[in-house]
Amino acid sequence: GDKVRVTATVDEFNGLTELTNVSEIATLDTGVQLPTVTVITIGLDADYEAVEGMRVELVSGSGDPLTVIENFNLDRYGEVVVSEGIQTQPTQIYDAQAQQAEIDALAEQNAANRLLVEDNITGQNPDTHVLIDAGDGTPLEAGDPITKDGPTLRLGSELTSVTGIMNYAFGDYRLQVDAPLDVVEGTGERPDAVPDVGGDLQVASFNVLNFFTTIDEPGAGTGPNGDLDPRGADTAAEYTRQLDKLVTAILELDAEVIGLQELENNGFGPGSAIAALVDALNAALGADVYSFVDPGTDFVGTDAITTGVIYKHDVVTLTGVAVLNYEESSADETWAIVDEIQSLTGTDPVSDFDRNRPTIAATFEDNDGSAFTVAVNHYKSKGDSGLYDLLEDAVAAGVSAELILALIQDPNFDQGDGQGFWNQVRTDAALELANWLQTNPTGAGSTDNLVLLGDLNSYAMEDPVQALIDAGFSDLAQALIGTSAYSYVFDGQQGTLDYALASGGLLDNITGAAEWHINADEPDLLNYDTSFNNPAFYNDDPFAVSDHDPMLIGLELDDPSISVSYEFWSNDRGNRDKITYYEEGEKLDVACIRGPQKVINLHQDGIYIDGFDGLRGKDWLTIDKNGLGVLSQFGDRRGDGSLRKGEINMLDDEESIVFHLTNKGHVGDGLDVAFEFGKVRGAGEVTLIFRDDGVVVDEVDLTIVDDMVAYDLVGNTTFNEVEIAVGESTKVQISALDIERLAPADHFDFLGS
Question: How would you list the strands of the sheet with 55-58, edge to edge?
């Protein structure tokens, strides 16, 4: 409120306009009302230089609210980043192989849509955090209560506006504030419970952020040779804090099988990381509930960290285990280039670069004898591991342009497509994994009841994940959560690094999938570490135990299914039209259909069929030697009005056939479907619409290939009605319909008798 006159020289210092050589500061008045704020917005057109040093109010200039998107430096420097709306990693939603323009555009848009907000405290690791509301409108201070409910400042917190002084420092404009951010009620809230994913069993993936029993202190070593640096707690007190939070999180997660990443690679004996974790879990429960998978090797891989599996041994039984050590063939060529350059530069900045941690695969049976296999993965990170430093060394040493170009163009160097460094090594791993699992390494009864878990260090549309999808796996986060899925936030941009991917044979047993957002949104101010945080900013709740969110899926393994088929055929110009019914490939019934029908009712075979002729309303179904179609007595005409006789019995434009599933044939709702066609004309484009009790649950456009189309509804989605229609230029006759249907347990017993 003081009005002053400053006599000084205006200067520019590292981009900041400032006053130097101050000769006088005179107070002219006191208690003066502050100047009216200047309203500003974020974006490409923002001119922060024009308001530098001024009191401003930041508001949203679009329909998206001001949102906290980054809090990584909140603990150390008291700063967050805000943008208009959340930001998404470009390769989370755009294909790195086909949508480079979209990737570049979103990256540019994200970079422009951000502004630092800071507390203007010059010291590091403060005991007062101005930006966080302690709950009473005052800044959070060391000693204030920390509970499961907060206080916190999570990513996704929305702000109506932010008022402060515009400053420039360390290469960025930043808005300096002196009071807690006013978070819009109902935003930035912690989840109050673990998501309900249903199922008899829950399976989870959890990156536990370097859980080590070896304390990271001078002279300590870990790994197979004991010569690698520990990466976890720096003191015994930190270790206890980390373990307590981790135990709380896992017990609340309450999954029967959990794939873990970033465990210390120090074996499986007493005192090992995985043994210590299981011991702590059982101690907290007061009973012997959890066990860990021991693959029978002293160590898993050569890195300081590894993967692991823990499980509830009274609920599932371990029946097989195997370990995949990756060849990473592309790394050989990368290393050859690295070796040659390092021999010329005399430097060796490239470190342990080709390390996809080995995969642990474990097969389990539930108490009813149903089996599934989990494969737990942790792929190489996107960091350069010294490759960029090597490039700088090569340029400085005058290494040939040809060799430098070879390094830059190597597929493990960052190609600027959004996938980062070592993308090819990660893709190598994905391809190796898919092939290895088909060899049935755990001795499972099936190679199609698989769940791939883990931190793949790849976003959803990047090559490694797409390679697994091409191999027949489904990304459950994309399928069941959709575009809002994320498990990690880097540089203010969210995406999925942590996955559960299911093979086709297990899709129908998936009851749900969810990320438990306890970590990615939280400031690491509230984690176990005391190096950069006052120890008082801590509670042994599950929040901020890691930097990755756990991924959780539900499994329902007790729902048997039956493959049923209906063949449509005629051997006498429609006078002996027949439908043959099969279950599990065994012919059980042949129904004779005499002439065109309004409705075909196969009561004992669990289906009735009707059709719709949108042209003239003559809704008759007919069967000839090519299969089932819609009889068009007045449609399917040429331009001159004459009937196209070869198309009278075909399903064509504006017509559809609906198959209604009933439970009269001892079978239940459908899970997936395949249509086979006896005759196809035109582009072969069909639309399938799935309904459950009249409500549309899925709809898909498909193209006929090899005279058939097939579609598997994701997860536990079922249907009791499927409608097929064709594109404008397509005409077909259906020769067979194949459906995977739920079946009561007593029907399974009947079929087996």
Answer: 38-40, 55-58, 162-169, 172-176, 115-118, 79-84, 66-70, 158-159
Cα atoms in the 13 Å half-sphere on the side-chain side of 181: 37
**What H or E segment, with its residue span, contains residue 279?**
helix 273-285
Q: What is the DSSP string of 598-647?
A: SEEEEGGGTEEEEEEETTT---EEEEETTEEEEE-SS-SB-TTS-B-GGG
Smallest Cα–Cα separation from 741: which of 659, 676, 686, 678? 659
Kind of pairing, strands 87-88 and 493-495? parallel
728 secondary structure, DSSP code: T
Q: How does pLDDT run across 484-513, given as a tens digit for each residue?
A: 999 999 999 999 999 999 999 899 899 999
Place of tokens 């959709």: 482
Q: Which residue is associated with the tokens 């010291």?
A: 123
User: Which fold, 561-752?
Assistant: Jelly Rolls (2.60.120)
Rounded CA separation 700/682 (Å): 19
pLDDT at 354: 59
Q: What is the DSSP letter of 210?
A: E
Give span(s): CATH 3.60.10.10, the chain: 201-555
The conformation of residue 459, written as its DSSP 8-state character, comes to: -
In 3D space, the residue among 529, 549, 546 whose CA is nearest the CA of residue 241 turns out to be 529
Tokens of 638: 């040429």
Q: Report yes or no: 705 and 501 within 8 Å, Cβ to Cβ.
A: no
In the chain, which residues fall in CATH 2.60.120.260? 561-752
Residues 432, 327 contacting (CB under 8 angstroms): yes
Contacts of 23 (CB under 8 A, 6+ apart): 7, 8
Q: How far is CA 189 from CA 19, 184, 484, in A?
A: 43, 10, 16
Q: Kindly list the distances between the CA atom of residue 473 and the CA atoms of 123, 168, 370, 433, in Å, as whole numbers in the listed order.
A: 50, 49, 20, 12
Chain-centroid distance, C-alpha 186: 24
In the block, tokens 């005058």 appear at 398
DSSP E strand stretches across 536-604: 551-555, 561-570, 577-583, 586-593, 599-602
Q: What is the mean pLDDT of the chain?
A: 92
User: Against a cut of 0.85, is the pTM above it?
Assistant: no
Helix, strand, coil fractions of the chain, as percent rounded to 5: 20, 35, 45
Nearest Cα to Cα of residue 67 among 177, 159, 168, 130: 159
**The pLDDT of residue 369 is above 90:** no
Helices 423-437 + 463-470 axis angle, to 10: 20
- The DSSP line for 10-38 is EEEETTEEEEEEEEEEEEEESSPPPPPPE
Topology of domain 201-555, per CATH? Deoxyribonuclease I; Chain A (3.60.10)
